[in-house]
Amino acid sequence: MGRVINPDTNGKRRNQIMRSSAEILRLLTQKGTIDDESKDMLAALVYLFREIDEGVEESAAAWEKRDYWMKAEEFRQRWNWAGYMAGQITSVLVESKWDALPQIMVKLLPRFADIKITKVKTKNTEWLGSYTRLSEEKSPRDKPNN
Predict the structure, then answer these.
(1) Shortest CA distance to 112 belongs to which of 81, 83, 90?
(2) Do 13 and 104 form a contact (C-beta atoms < 8 A)?
(3) Average pLDDT value for residue range 30-44
């Protein structure tokens, strides 16, 4: 029996997410005001960054399984920004701290500087409703204690 190869790897998915995020960031920088679509786009970034964060641990675990502890830790360090920025953007959206958004964007844009976008492939349907979905999430302090 031969090896089973999964063509949909974490790295490939992470690259796709980075591309989509870069496109959304580009579109966000072209907007002059925070409207409903901007909120949806920011919420979509939260979900994309969360997905990156979840995949990082899975990839690092694969390195650790092969006893590449240093490589796994370097990998985690290289991608630790994703979970952090998801939290920062969530805070901006939930608490309507729009004055903090430019500072977050300045921190984010260098992460995507090497991604060249000649044509936007991400459709607006990919982020529609994201803000509503994010605002409906219960925070940990809203959950009842068991």
Answers:
(1) 81
(2) no
(3) 91
Rounded to an integer, what distance in angstroms lies between the CA atom of residue 20 and that of residue 71? 26
Length of the chain in terms of residues written = 146
Residue 95 and residue 113: Cα distance in Å, rounded? Answer: 28
Phi-psi bin for 122: left (phi > 0), alpha (psi -120 to 50), beta?
Answer: beta
55 half-sphere exposure, CB direction, 13 A CA radius: 20
pTM attached to this predicted model: 0.83
**pLDDT band of 78, cuts 50, 70, 90:** very high
Phi, psi of 97 (to 5 degrees): -90, 65
Where helices occur in 66-111 by DSSP H, the ranges are 69-79, 81-95, 101-108
Q: What tokens appear for 41 in the block? A: 């786009």
Q: In the Cβ-directed half-sphere of 15, how many Cα atoms lie within 13 Å?
A: 6
Kindly report which listed range (46-55, 107-116, 119-128, 135-144) carries the lowest average pLDDT score: 135-144
Question: Residue ranges of the domains in the chain?
Answer: 10-136
Q: What pLDDT is stored for residue 146 in this prediction?
A: 45
What is the C-alpha separation between 131 and 134, in angstroms, rounded?
Answer: 5
